[in-house]
Amino acid sequence: MTTTSERQPDGNNHDVAVIARETGISPRQISATLGLLADGATIPFISRYRKEATGGLDEIAIFNISTRAEELSGMAKRKEYILSTIDAQNSLTDELRERIENCTDAAALEDIYLPFKPKRRTRAQIARENGLEPLAKIIMAQRDGALGRASSFISEKVPSADDALNGASDIIAEWVNESEEARARVRDQFRRFATISSKAVKAKIDDAANYETYFDFSVPLARCSSHNYLAMRRGETEGMLRVSIDVDDERTLNRLIPLFVRRHAPADVADFISDAVADGYKRLTRPAIENEMASEAKVKADTTAIDTFSNNLRQLLLAPPLGSKRILAIDPGFRTGCKVVCLDANGNLLHNDVIYPTPPKSDITGAARKISYLVEAYKIDAISLGNGTASRETERFLKNMRYPRPVDVFVVSENGASVYSASKTARDEFPDYDVTVRGAVSIGRRLMDPLAELVKIDPKAIGVGQYQHDVDQSRLKASLDMTVMSCVNSVGVDVNTASRQLLAYVSGIGDTLAGNIVAYRAANGDFPSRDALKKVPRMGPKAFEQCAGFLRVPTGADILDHTAVHPERYPLVRQMASDLGLSIQEIVSNPEILKKIDLNRYVDENTGLSTLSDIILELEKPGRDPRQKATVMEFDESVNDITDLKPGMVLPGIINNITDFGAFVDLGVHKSGLIHISQISDKRIANPSQVLRLHQQVKVKVLEVDLKRGRIALTLRDVE
Predict the structure, then answer these.
(1) Confidence grade of residue 532 (pLDDT, cut at 50, 70, 90)
(2) Taking a C-beta distance cutoff of 8 angstroms, is the pair 302, 296 a contact?
(3) Domain count, the chain
(4) Whose CB among 127, 168, 387, 625 lies 3.0–4.6 Å from 135's, allowing a Cys bridge?
């Protein structure tokens, strides 16, 4: 895995100034952040252990700084190419060089470059080759009789005065298109007044039911939501819709023509130039700016969709774990039965079986006997049931049973379980078992520790976003990788139990070193301390610095190895304990004693109060997990299918996806209902994530049930 730090440019003063102006973050903080990134530090490490250097910037701010620095680095390379191209034409002046070097907007940079850009053989270029550029300049001087000069340009290649004027018009049209001010005005009109519209392709209308909303749809481009834009573009790609971005051409030309036609120009010349401006606008500038606006809107829509996906993924990964419990996991089904596995407290597979409590066999007695036996034989603490096909029927069976020992039944999301079960990772873990057993194991492990299990799956396969396959895939991957890395490092990882996939997301480790850690552990047994990690092949000083604070050794002799205190701060903690006349064991988990420590005594140029406060929090609760504990979700027993729903019903549910237009709720009827953003709160909100979170248990009211399209409309308003 490539970490964000591995692809970061070092920041120069120009980049630092640009980022500071755009973000409001001080140049000192930005410069320090870029320096740490260039030195190989990862974002989680910088955010957690270099607060003094960055002024306490969080992961999001650091990620945004690194991303913008990378964009500016790419723009710098583009500038180098542009400067060399213009210089080769002997057209590079000091003023032009300065404008290019100081430009921070990609569109503006391309506008500057456009007049010098090598061109294919355009109509204007042909006119120049025919000697008509002097005529175009005469006309643009806008004096009496300018058009009459056309006859003097008649030649073998220009048979008539009209041909000469047409060629001059083509040259003027190209000048219009290459005018920075003209392009800026057209761009402004699009940004302020453009509309985006979609129409159904008549020949495909019977196959386009999913796009019915967009059969005759129009909205101002500036206010087009991410999901609407991406849906229209997907429909266009699939041939179901025709999408266009339109602006008032007359109003736009009224803004353009005064740029080129002088107030007191002769009427015939003014009309000629106005026609050339209109031609340049409609034939050249408008299509180019329309494409640019489409790209700009796509980037905006992508950003919203990626942010939504990343936020949902964070909530999913940080879902409450049940912890190290003995689990009986069930992947429910009808005809092929329910796959059952028993796992020990470390997630190891102990037993697998199949039961048939659902139709067509409905062997409830035999299934109950088998489950009771397994619960007793393997000392099961909880049952983890997948939420797929036959889930409600299986849940009802499980909750009507009597067990030989106390067990709770949890329903967990199956999203991505099939992807994992067919993956190389699953085959390597369970080479002797088929995909059904592997899928059930994944369902059980998700209850124990969602984070540790879900990192084995491509985040895009988890299904907690909107239009994730339509957005920029490289940007999506960078954001999701950063989100997973952030979650893994915020929780911390037990180095003696973690999988290779989980270790790979730890700051500074990556795939290769994760494999080396697992191999070393298999050959030599558990790591007795963090320091023992230095014996792992390729675990150099820099890698150890980056990862050590995020790895835990719960069984180690040094209690600090079970905390997020970085080994570089161990001497400081020992000094604190020594100053109190106590051992480290005596101050750990002892809030009263820790309160007596005067942190100001330990402040120096490398250690500020932020770091010291973090250390005290870790000493209070060593190995603390920021996640909440798992709780049982109870669905309404009278509702099992969408046909059971009626408007006005108030039902319990659990949020299983959040988009920018609303939240989806699992009601236990195999179809998720939608709470539209307008139905979430009495107050206007910008995004559902302001109010709701994944896995949140809610009570909702049914507004409407569309059986034909399988849609359920819900509300949180007026719910008693």
Answers:
(1) very high
(2) no
(3) 3
(4) 168
Class of residue 202 by CB neighbours under 10 A (exposed 0-12, middle 13-18, buried 19+):
exposed
359-372 average pLDDT score: 96
The last residue of one of the domains, among 33, 57, 84, is 84
Owner of token pair 């090598």: 118
User: pLDDT tens across 187-229, in order?
Assistant: 999 999 999 999 999 999 988 888 999 999 999 999 999 999 9
> Which residue, 448, 471, 492, sits at the end of a domain?
448
Please tell me the predicted confidence (pLDDT) of residue 8.
44
Residue 148 included in any domain: no
CA dihedral 312, 315, 316, 320 (to 10 degrees): -160
Whether 404 is in a domain gets the answer yes
The closest alpha carbon to 699, from 665, 660, 663, belongs to: 665
Is 11 a domain residue? Answer: yes
Tell me the DSSP string of 597-620.
--GGGG--SS--HHHHHHHHHHHH
- Position 63 in a domain: yes
Residue by residue, DSSP assigns 240-300 as SEEEEEE--HHHHHHHHHHHHS-TT--HHHHHHHHHHHHHHIIIIIHHHHHHHHHHHHHHH
pLDDT in tens, 473-525: 899 989 999 999 999 999 999 999 999 999 999 999 999 999 999 999 999 99
C-alpha neighbours within 13 Å on the C-beta side of residue 132: 30
Q: Coil, helix or strand for 470?
A: coil
